[in-house]
Amino acid sequence: MRDLRRDGLYRQLRVVESAQGPTVRLAGRDVILLCSNDYLGLAGHPSLRDAVAAAAERWGAGAGASRLVSGNMSPHAELEQELADFKGYQRCVLFGSGFLANVGVLSALAGRGDVILSDELNHASIVDGCRLSRAETIVYKHADLESLEHGLRQARGRDTVVVTDAVFSMDGDLAPLRGIAELAQRHGARVVVDEAHATGVVGPGGRGLVAALGLHDHVDVVIGTLGKALGSYGAFACSGPHIAEFLINRARTLIYSTALPPPTVAGALAGLRLLAGDSALVRRLWDRARLLRGSLARGGFQIAESEMPIVPLIFGAPSVALAICEEALTEGVFVQAIRPPTVPRGTSRLRAVVTAAHTDHQCRKAALAIAKAAANRDRHSPFDRPVPLVERTGEMPRQTTSST
Ligand SMILES: *Cc1c(COP(=O)(O)O)cnc(C)c1O
Questions:
Q1: pLDDT per residue over 126-151, tens digit each?
Q2: In a domain, 397, yes or no
Q3: What's the pLDDT score for residue 377?
Q4: Is residue 228 among the annotated active site residues?
Q5: Of 70, 121, 67, 134, residue with least CA distance to 94
Q6: Ligand 1: centre distance to CA 118 (Å)
Q7: Which range is most confident: 142-146, 344-348, 390-394?
Q8: Are residues 106 and 211 in the same domain?
Q9: Does residue 175 sit in the same domain as residue 81?
């Protein structure tokens, strides 16, 4: 622990003293919140609050057992059906969280003697899912189709799963999904795509990257979380009927864990209905993202032109990212420093995330505050200049209002 402190890698919990929203109360002060994954501002939305309260009255606080025993209730079935329809799949299976979904799905689909090909920047829960599966895991270079193909050749003759984030959580860039699907098909591999940061964020009406590229027939399982854009908690895996039945019989994190509480399920369902019923919500998120990116660029950061709400400001050393995070807080903006092992060494950063709930004024003010914090820090130690950000952009078709 002393080493962690010395290296600027020590982690501490901060306490938010208000509901989640574009501003939160932190240590007695209201600050602009610029690091939440509550992309559509639904976590504190009145419709979700009402739905959760009503469900608590009607269905109680807990499910009481695993879904395979007696915990599978009408709200669970209803949410699964609507999620499947939204994502364009025949079936959907709920899990306790995105972490549990990745671990459950990967360890069900792959086992000893099989191969999983995993992008080097995939989420920690995918990494742990690979480990738990006992399959041989080949890590391919980030978003690199040549590296993936090399891995697929190594896997020849064995059951193979390719797994990738759709939107990478710490950089906000997109997986080259069309290429991945093509290669996987050529080599007879299954494809699992984690749309934790794509659901409610990317594609027609926020339906995700698989939907944006029309790859339903080439992606076997789409995983998503209910805890980010959908404003609640829990997760899901969409697939065809065969894989859904297989997961119900084999995914240990589903079988051996208590079902989601009915109020939580009702909150997610209310979030999904808001999203599915109003594509303006997602367009608003894209507008905010463009505005924040523009404001940060004017503040001196090198920012890619994109509509993605995740904007990494890479500073390099963890202590620098941490110091600028603290500076930004004194300027009234909470944007968390992200350090190894969450991101590779030398890429410690502020991960700025804007939501549909932020006002124009809050976007501009936040960008200004971060630029000021970085400049202050720069003055204090001229050798720790921020590294200009070079973003990867992937193959996203440009999002337009007509695509929703
Ligand atoms: C957040 C996240 C998860 C985990 O989802 P939870 O519902 O928060 O457990 C999984 N995959 C990715 C890519 C994520 O960003």
A1: 999 999 999 999 999 999 999 999 99
A2: no
A3: 78
A4: yes
A5: 67
A6: 16
A7: 142-146
A8: yes
A9: yes
